[in-house]
Design goal:
mainly alpha, 4 helices, BrnA_antitoxin
């Protein structure tokens, strides 16, 4: 199904769930344990900026290290660079 671009989610089952069903499922999910009592009423949707494609030369061992971490390695490289930039800005404040 995924190869054909179809969703693997049973949306009819999701649409049929009540708020109580959703809350019960969340309370039974250990991944939600620390997030159940958070006030999400002021949460806002954040969309990442569009990425800019560039060509960059990196040392082979750097590329090998990040590629060995699996899919999403370019995102992790971006996160490392983002952290560096944020720290540089913070230290100049």
């Amino acid at each position: 199904m995924r190869a054909r671009g179809e969703s693997l989610t049973d949306w009819a089952r999701v649409d049929a769930m009540t708020d109580e069903d959703i809350e019960r499922a969340m309370r039974d999910d250990p991944d939600w344990k620390d997030h159940m009592d958070i006030d999400w009423s002021k949460a806002r949707m954040v969309f990442p900026d569009k990425k800019k494609a560039i060509s960059i030369r990196l040392d082979p061992d750097i590329i090998d290290f990040f590629q060995a971490t699996g899919k999403g390695y370019q995102t992790r490289i971006n996160a490392v660079l983002r952290h560096f930039v944020d720290e540089q800005k913070r230290s100049k404040s």
